[in-house]
Amino acid sequence: MTPDRCDGIVLAAGAGTRYGMPKVLAEGGAWLGSAVHALRAGGCARVFVVLGATGPAHRLSNGSWVVSEESGIALPAGTRPVWARDWAVGVSASMRAGLAAAAAVPALESRRVGGDADPLLPATDAGSATDAAPSGRSGESLVFAVGNSSTGTSTVGITSAGNSREGNGGPAGFVAIMPVDTPDVGPEVVARVIAGARDSPSGLARAVFGRMPGHPVVLGRAHWAGVSAAAAGNSGAGTYLRQRADMVCVTCDDLATGMDQDYPTGGAR
C-alpha cells in the first residue's frame, strides 16, 4: 500500500430522475469535468468515474472514452471508467463498484490486460463481478462491471491491508468520494479534506457546510471494506460513518456551498 496517496472516485451512476437526465450528462458534461478537476487538482493521483444508468463507457478508435456511445460526452483524459452494473440499487452500488475498482486496478495493471474476464477479479458469488476491460497495455483505462444485480453486496478485491490479489502494485492509502452533482466544490475543498484525513488517527474526514455533512468524504484504506459492507440502498458511506465517533468534520463554508443540484433550475435538497 502507498500510505499517503489518495485516489478519487466520482459517483455518477444515477438516473437523475428529478433532474430529468443522468447528471453525468448535465451541462454537456460540465459537472463531470468539474468533479474530476476538483479531485485531481485537490491532490488525487487517479480518478475513477462510476457510471450506471448510461451504461458502460464507450471507447473510441483513438483510445479515448465517452460516457456512452449515444451521448458523445467525453470522459476527462486519464480518468478510469467504472460501470456499476447494479446501479439501480442506489448510491450503495456505486460506492461498492468504485471502491472495488480502486482496490483492484493496481493488481490488474501489473500484467497485460486481455479482452476476457481477468483472473484477478473472480466473482465472489455467481455473477457478482465481471471485468469488461477492453484489450490494451498496462496503464490503460479499464472498465469494470462490478456488483450483484440481486443483492448489490459485492466487496470484490477490498481488504484493509492492501489489495487481496497477487501482483499488488501499491494501492492508495486513501480515497476521496465526490458525487457528480456538487459543481461548486473545487480543489481547495478537496485538498483541505484530504489533509484532514491524513492528519487524523482514524483516516476519516468529510467536508461540512453550514453544519451539514457534505462532500468530499475521504476514507483511509482500513475503512474501505467496512464502508462497502455497510452501504445499503441509497446510502453510501453515510451508514458506516454514522457509527464512527472518530471522523473529522472539516468546515468548508468559506470555500463552497456544497449543495447537491437536484433540479435543472439549480434547486438543492
Overview of the molecule:
- It is a single chain.
- This protein is of the alpha/beta class and 269 residues long.
- 20% of the residues lie in helices and 21% in strands.
- The protein contains five helices and eleven strands.
- The chain has a seven-stranded mixed β-sheet with strand order 5-2-1-8-10-9-11, sandwiched between helices. A two-stranded antiparallel sheet has the order 3-4. A two-stranded antiparallel sheet has the order 6-7.
- It is globular and about 45 Å long.
- The model is unreliable at 110-141, 148-157 and 159-169 (pLDDT under 50).
What is the gist of this entry?
This protein has about 270 residues and is an alpha/beta fold. The chain has helices at about 30-40, 90-110, 185-200, 225-230, 240, and strands at about 1-10, 45-50, 60, 65, 80-85, 130, 145, 170-180, 205-210, 210-220, 250.
